[in-house]
């Protein structure tokens, strides 16, 4: 969760603790108890979404590394094929992509496989492994899989982030409703009312301090 979301989350917890301490002051069948139960469930839901978001972010980072490894592996075998092709005098059929673009790399790798197939025996004679075309195709699949899994992980944590926003909106609405009930209940009890105001207040983000500008010393007039 981001800083704003964390501050709202902490406010919900403070409100939950306030209500837990004072719930006996509210009627057993009243709305305050219902809202209290809703808030507790909202906090649990928020915790679940936060866990899913953190997990999705971690998975996306892992898949980014996996994608990078798969990209490097595919490019390495393409470079080997390119070297052999240049030695064979057919280097123009196996140009390496200049741009660092995974889709272009996969497209070029597919063309490498198609163009290498009729020349397979000659490539093997030029010290390429007998299964180099199969190896090339496997590395293409590895990169395509890594791209898909990275995208899925990114979607997961984005979805969790949206769910966090919605849950916080729900929690904020519950606190808004509780505010009216609590203020009515403790209208003649300023001490408890002050506790409520402190609990239901969302802390402001700390302001960034800016360094004062260094004063410029006046230039002495020339003599």
Mind sketching the topology for me?
Blueprint: H1 3-22, H2 31-88, H3 102-116, H4 120-125, H5 132-185, H6 190-199
Helix pairs in contact: 1-2, 1-5, 2-3, 2-5, 3-5
How would you sum up this structure in a few lines?
The chain has 223 residues and is mainly α. It has helices spanning 3-22, 31-88, 102-116, 120-125, 132-185, 190-199. The protein contains six helices and no strands.
Write up what this structure looks like.
By secondary structure, this protein is an all-alpha fold. The chain has one domain (3-199). Helix content is 73%, strand content 0%. The protein contains six helices and no strands. The chain has helices spanning 3-22, 31-88, 102-116, 120-125, 132-185, 190-199. Helix 1 (3-22) crosses helix 5, helix 2 packs antiparallel against helix 5 (132-185) and helix 3 packs antiparallel against helix 5. It is rod-shaped and about 95 Å long.
